[in-house]
From TrEMBL:
InterPro entries: Glutathione-S-Trfase_C_sf, Glutathione_S-Trfase, Glutathione_S-Trfase_N, GST_Omega/HSP26, Thioredoxin-like_sf
PROSITE patterns (UniProt xref): GST_NTER
One CC-aspect GO term: cytoplasm
Region described as Disordered: spans on this chain: 231-250
PANTHER family per record: GLUTATHIONE S-TRANSFERASE OMEGA, PTHR43968
Gene3D superfamilies xref list: 1.20.1050.10, Glutaredoxin
UniProt name for this protein: GST N-terminal domain-containing protein
Residues in GST N-terminal domain copies: 15-96
Pfam (any one): GST_C_2
Origin: domain of life: Bacteria
Segments of skewed composition (Basic residues): 231-245
Length: 303
């Protein structure tokens, strides 16, 4: 459990549940989904990443890692999204998101670790395929770089992203292949069970759903994992197992929001070549996944 100490007295004095997050952040979306699934009321504190609110002294005092989400529960501070959703499941009443089954517990832990390991790939592809078409002002570029320690992973990442040539084709190909391999793993898991977590919806599904949503935003052809997305849509739109006050009718909103700047600018002629390039990478990855699936002798196709 990633509990950290904060130097902010105002944070330590908070009561109830407070979530510091960003609607676009897939890690934040995990926590929002877990809170809603457990029926936990919370105070939302939206951190505007485009305005670099995560780099302010106040936020750095809350989380020195300068990232969202951060959960505060009765003055105690928790970071790292998968650790947070595990804490939420254990700390609050409501449906158990990990059954009391050692095998399912071990499987869930493995799937949470896999989703955490994929985070760098998700970040890379988000910057390449969603953020690159948006022109960043020079002042913001400089602020972002100056806020990071020279030689740190974050500084190297931003330096490469903001360079005139950007990321190399080999790097992009490798990251798309990593995403494709992860989805192959998910679909293999789903050949014998309706949910990643087993017979019921749970933490593994919550952890991976935002990654799926992000892939959809990047126009990844999701027909390579057809069953699980359908189940998630049905869960979002189907009958409620809790009162409306606990699970509002805007449940899917946490994973459906995207800045209008992205949708507005991605269609402009000046950035169209980026999307053509992106589509060639993603369609190629999907074709490889489908070919592997078709050649697998042990694969069972579900109706």
């Amino acid at each position: 459990m990633a509990e950290i100490e904060t130097t902010r007295a105002d944070i330590r004095a908070l009561t109830g549940v407070h979530l510091y997050h960003n609607y676009m952040s897939n890690c934040s979306q995990r926590v929002s989904l877990a809170l809603r699934e457990k029926g936990v009321d919370y105070v939302s504190h939206h951190i505007d990443l485009q305005r670099q609110e995560n780099l302010t002294d106040a936020f750095v005092a809350l989380n020195p890692n300068k990232v969202v989400p951060v959960l505060v529960h009765d003055g105690r501070t928790y970071v790292e999204s998968n650790d947070i959703i595990d804490y939420i499941d254990k700390a609050f009443a409501g449906p158990k998101l990990i059954p009391d089954d050692p095998q399912i517990v071990a499987l869930t832990e493995a799937l949470l670790s896999a989703s955490a390991a994929l985070q760098d790939t998700i970040k890379f592809l988000t910057y390449e395929f969603l953020m690159k078409p948006i022109s960043l002002k020079s002042a913001r570029k400089n602020n972002a770089l100056e806020a990071e320690e020279v030689g740190s992973d974050r500084h190297r990442f931003l330096t490469e992203f903001l360079a005139p040539g950007g990321f190399t084709n080999d790097r992009i190909t490798a990251e798309v292949a990593a995403l494709s391999a992860a989805f192959d793993m998910l679909e293999h898991r789903l050949t014998d069970t309706p949910w990643l977590s087993g017979a019921t919806y749970g933490l593994a599904d919550i952890s991976w759903f935002p990654n799926l949503r992000r892939a959809k935003m990047m126009r990844y052809p999701l027909n390579v994992i057809p069953h699980w997305p359908h189940g998630l849509r049905g869960r979002a739109r189907g009958p409620r197992s809790k009162p409306r006050s606990c699970r509002p009718n805007n449940w899917p909103r946490a994973c459906s929001w995207q800045p209008t700047a992205v949708t507005a600018r991605c269609g402009e002629p000046r950035s169209r070549h980026i999307w053509v390039r992106r589509d060639s990478f993603l369609q190629g990855a999907a074709s490889n996944s489908q070919a592997k699936a078709a050649s697998s002798p042990n694969r069972r196709v579900r109706a």
